[in-house]
Amino acid sequence: MSIRIAPSLLAADFADYGKAVSDLEKWKADSVHCDVMDGIFVPNITFGQPMIKALRERTELELDVHLMIADPGRYVEEFALAGADIITVHAEACGHLHRVLQQIHSAGKLAGVALNPSTSEKVLEYVMDQVDLILCMSVNPGFGGQKFIPSTLGKLSRVADMIKASGRSIRLEVDGGVTPNNAADVIAAGADMIVSGSAVFGAKDPAAAIAAMRK
Asked: Is 132 noted as a catalytic residue in this protein?
């Protein structure tokens, strides 16, 4: 199984995102995880479509755009035009999840669904034919630097079983508190894409941290 590492810009220097994405290229990251927060769905505000457009102009790395916003269907086309490669929406934020996933595909992008720690994976049952990525949050979304919630491992395992049963190639991503010390556990549970912010940007040797998690 090939493991993809998607460092989160939430842990980078907000004043120098251009350097951050250049560093991620040097450190051999696979994707750039872009946490879009609106201060409504989560208690924090980060950035929006203009930042995604600016990042797209600076890097060829995959832009993994995680919309932690209310009613994300309103903005799918805008983020697609800005240059997102993957657009992930929260099941909890969508009144019509199936429709929003269709919107993302119609915009020519990979469609992801994110689940908060307390959200059951059962909400995925009727959209497994529409998802390209499933993101299990291993912290409560809104802030970086939180500790990994251990019960996420069981959810990852159950979602991995759902993916296998679907017969489709669906990425299983985990986000929150993942470090080189617990990466092996989330991979063993079925994750093949790891989001990590502080453990990468806060490391003495970020390239080594990425390589360690990939192993």
From this structure: no
